[in-house]
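quick one before i forget lol
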Amino acid sequence: MPPAKKRPRAYDHLRTRTAVLAQYAHVRDAVAALTPQQLDSPTRLGDWTVRDLVAHIALGLGSVSRDLALPEPPGPKPATTLLEWPPAVAAVVRDPGAPAPAAARPDLLALYGEVEAAFLADVPASGTGDRLLPTRVGSMRLTDYLVTRTVELVVHTDDLNEALGLEIPYDRQALAACTRLLADTLADRAPGGSVEVRVPPFAVVQCIGGPKHTRGTPPNVVETSPLTWIRLATGRTDWARAREEAEVSASGERADLAALLPLLR
């Protein structure tokens, strides 16, 4: 019998909304200080410049207002749950054939202001977040879709920091939501209890079929930091490199996640 999958983690709508706005504000403030030379700098996302990446971040949050403007999908249940989102769309792994985002919106500060104003108007600081959105991967609950926006924002904040040597801060709640969703995705993709994956202080999950740990020190443990975990899950770094650079500790014969990563392909 295959291992039973656990009940999906619940996210608070208002806390997630606040986290999205906070991380977006961190990026917006950084963008306002970028020079033309910095905006033209390369990134690790293929041929995208920093300008393209900055536009993509704003457009990613703008998708919330865009989808809310469409008719609500019929039915009481979403077509796509939160844990189905990562395999359904590699939202943080760019399609190399996609057009450069900055081409359509060259005035980045105006774009950031428009997106933020629309979000504040369309996602009020009240409600349950149960409204269904017709996203490109199927209908999703608003709260769940906001959790996916924390993934976009946190991952691309790291892309910006890497490209320019910046230290754009990470909102704690946004970083937590991103970390937890990607950890839960691993547990959902490889259900079991033989390996414990720890990403302190935000997530602990068990995964991979085999002898289940019940008490005491687990025989197979993987531990890493939130940012390293996010880079592993999204393909910004690989398992071998993270082990070699001591960014991941792994003990036990089953504590090898190389075959399961990245989660967003």
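fyi The chain has a mean pLDDT of 91.
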